[in-house]
Amino acid sequence: MPIRASSSRQIDSLIANLSAENAVTRETAVARLTLLGARAVERLIAATDSMPPIARTAAWRALEAIGDPRALEPALASLASSDLEPEVAAAAVGVARAHLRGVHGAAAVDRLATVLFDRTRHETLRLAALRALRDLEPAAVAPILATLADDPNGAIRLEAALRGGNAPSSSEDTAAVLARAREGELPDDPAILRHALAMSAQSLPLLELLELVKRIREREGSEPAKTREQWRIARGAAHVALAHRGSRLAVFDLRESLETAKGLLPVEFLEALRRVGDATCLEAIAGAYAKARDGWWREHLAEAFKAITAREKLTRRHAALKKIEKRWPGCFATMAKG
Fold first, then answer.
1. Whole-angstrom Cα distance, residue 202 to residue 97?
2. What is the CATH number for 108?
3. Closest by CA position to 335, among listed 327, 320, 324, 326
4. Crossing angle, helix 86-98 and helix 53-66, to 10 degrees?
5. How many domains does one find in the chain?
6. What is the pLDDT of residues 177-190, one digit of tens each?
7. Which of 130, 140, 63, 70 is closest to 101 using CA atoms?
């Protein structure tokens, strides 16, 4: 389909808006690109490979809504990469999901199943793949669900068991789990809480999400070491829910968690820091980076540090960065280029 110059400029402008910090601007761009349909597909596909994670996620969502088969192969190729950010990969799953019953459905099913059964992939991505595969006929998905019965990830086991009645199976059920949790009645299994957050957190007022962070932290502190980490992951999920909505209400908890951590924090904390962390978090990040020995941990700390300094437009003259350079000479330069 030929694209007029005016349409081309409009598409380029909307794709640029996919990187906007303002969620309304991004969502408006997604909606308008969806309406442009096939004319926007090639540029959207290019955007999924060359833009910041927040823009790539939005681009995949627009491609899912358009439903053009040209997007399927790039989506499946993206899902083959283990380096893709979880939220971006989960959005690419949406494109594959839209084509499960099409002429290329077998390839989509195969790639989604491969992602789902790879226990090294991020929980967010595996859950997205599992939910997509549920669109298949019950007879086709039943063997997949049975295979997941002994999966080491509690959230995956929970999701796989939904149709068996062993866990919350509707938005009302998950909302009830969150409502009880805000009052201090947390479920015995933190995986149930993580699932409820994934399903219903978008409908919660921000102050209630903040209260949930506090409740989980209290429970986490009272748990024995062998289960404490699972509650910490649930707290990280609540932080991500706040961060996805651009809220900094719980930034203080992210900062304190870094300052008091005796080891690595779950990746959800770093994802939230990357999205909504501010200048007050930089010293805690630098301190964790300076004493870290784990390469993965150092890499993600540096990514969060760079994301914050770029978003806040901070230079070496900022008080926080001057303090970091004085306390840990060379740390800023190492993280900035790492």
1. 22
2. 1.25.10.10
3. 324
4. 10
5. 1
6. 888 888 888 988 88
7. 140
